[in-house]
Design goal:
alpha/beta, six-stranded parallel β-sheet, 19 helices
């Protein structure tokens, strides 16, 4: 199979998926996405003609993205994938609708959405996205079996590896306040109440908590735009995470916990208990391997899901104590392969016990590693993804949806013109003319949909044969 992967230069999931695809014997085309040097959280726009030309030249059997990285602002890539009958697999490892590139309108007939938190499957299907499935995270055992002794002398008994993201939280909140011109009076107090409720009511959505709080304060729960709504939810998420992680680490200071994950932690712990941020691909395995107890503090947005540490720490042979999420006990045997806590006092009790019982730590760590090797690798996840994609993209469903869309969504006409321009770029003049002619023939208010669909099928099929 030929797979095109849009790869974020700052991402660590995409390279592991690429390795898994290659290990499974597939041919890979990596389409690189760069970050803004001035703002590393922003992916830079790309030349859409160049990217479409790459897709036409390679003509993949599958297009793959993590967190929608690679979807352009106007959503041409998903529409072009649909026009070429290429499945587009979107794997969201964060909450989809709080990401800046999320737009439900960009879900095309060949798009299949995967989320690492199964509670979001219901949200997506309720919103009309029927091809949405649960696909948890995983690990690359080969990478995490290569841990060295380089951090052994610097670590204490307990380590937490993770960012605080206080600066990002403040940026979201300040931007929200600047842009929301007619926000409710006493907004700061309302916001604090929402954060406190969100932190104390695990598993309840931000939307429900926010609506209840706004109503209790006598204000209607509505936002002036989707951008403001996204900023609001991101502000709540990040602020709640800052408070939660800060309070947890401070409560564990008597245990001499070491923190790794960025300079912001220096406001919480002293330099003796601080490690500089470590590259995911080199050094992280060494920390996990050489620590008596690795701690996991999940982000608040994870309602049921587990994060990357649940797989990476066991893969390195390390011992992990994690905050409880529903999926912990679905993916691992509680007490035998994983240890979880529901509150600070329970966590402290676990720490005291396992620091004094090294044999039990080792036994649990060994069992967890065995489970990860058997059930939770990226190769296994990508194989599962292929099965979902192959089962849910039927010709009859595709035809029905495309017949409707090419009559009602003018973006598909623009996408055909883009395909024509890209085909000219790669010297495929005959193919370019066919795309342009098809675009001209498909007036969105008066079109022979079946005729247009037949041309799409013929072009996509002919192009596949030419590049096979």
């Amino acid at each position: 199979m030929k797979i095109a992967v849009f790869q974020d230069s700052a991402g660590f999931i995409e390279p592991e998926c690429v390795n898994a695809f290659q290990s499974l014997g597939h041919k890979i085309k990596v389409i690189s996405l760069d970050r803004d040097p001035a703002n590393p959280d922003i992916t830079l726009p790309y030349n859409i003609i160049e990217r479409v030309s790459e897709l036409l030249t390679f003509m993949p059997d599958l297009l793959f993205m993590v967190n929608g990285n690679g979807i352009d602002e106007r959503g041409f890539i998903p529409r072009i994938a649909a026009l070429l009958k290429i499945p587009l697999a979107l794997w969201y490892v964060d909450r989809p609708d709080t990401l800046e590139n999320w737009n439900k309108e960009n879900i095309s007939p060949t798009t299949v959405v995967f989320v690492t938190d199964k509670s979001y499957v219901g949200d997506l299907r309720y919103s009309g996205i029927k091809k949405a499935f649960f696909l948890p995270l995983a690990t690359n055992p080969a990478r995490f079996s290569e841990g060295t002794e380089q951090y052994k002398d610097r670590l204490k008994d307990i380590v937490f590896v993770g960012k605080l993201d206080r600066e990002k939280a403040n940026t979201y909140f300040n931007t929200l306040k600047d842009r929301w011109q007619n926000k409710p009076a006493d907004f700061d107090n309302i916001f604090k109440r929402i954060i406190n409720s969100y932190r104390n009511r695990s598993g309840i959505s931000i939307e429900l908590i926010s609506e209840t709080t706004f109503n209790d304060c006598g204000f209607p729960f509505r936002f002036p735009s989707n951008d403001i709504k996204t900023l609001f939810y991101n502000s709540v998420e990040y602020m709640a995470n800052v408070l939660h992680r800060t309070e947890t680490i401070r409560a564990l200071k008597p245990f001499n916990i070491t923190v790794c994950g960025g300079w912001e932690w220096l406001d919480v712990v002293d330099k003796r208990h601080y490690l500089n941020e470590v590259n995911y691909f080199s050094g992280l395995a060494s920390i996990y391997k050489n620590t008596k107890i690795n701690l996991n503090i999940s982000r608040m947005q994870l309602r049921t899901a587990v994060n990357q540490r649940l797989f990476d720490v066991p893969a390195s042979g390390g011992f992990l104590i994690t905050d409880f999420r529903e999926d912990v006990e679905e993916l691992f045997a509680s007490g035998r392969e994983i240890v979880s806590y529901r509150n600070i006092e329970e966590l402290k009790g676990h720490i005291r016990y396992f620091l004094s019982h090294p044999d039990e730590r080792r036994k649990i760590a060994d069992s967890a590693k065995e489970k990860v090797m058997e059930k939770h690798t990226f190769e296994i996840r990508m194989s599962e993804m292929f099965k979902y994609v192959s089962l849910c993209l039927t010709d009859s469903e595709y035809s029905e949806q495309m017949n409707r869309l090419i009559r009602t969504d003018h973006s598909y006409i623009d996408a055909l013109n883009l395909l024509g321009a890209a085909a000219y770029e790669i010297k495929q003049n005959v193919l370019a003319e066919e795309f342009f002619k098809l675009g001209l023939s498909l007036d969105p208010f008066n079109t022979d949909g079946k005729k247009g669909l037949a041309v799409i099928n013929r072009i996509a099929g002919k192009r596949r044969l030419a590049t096979a």
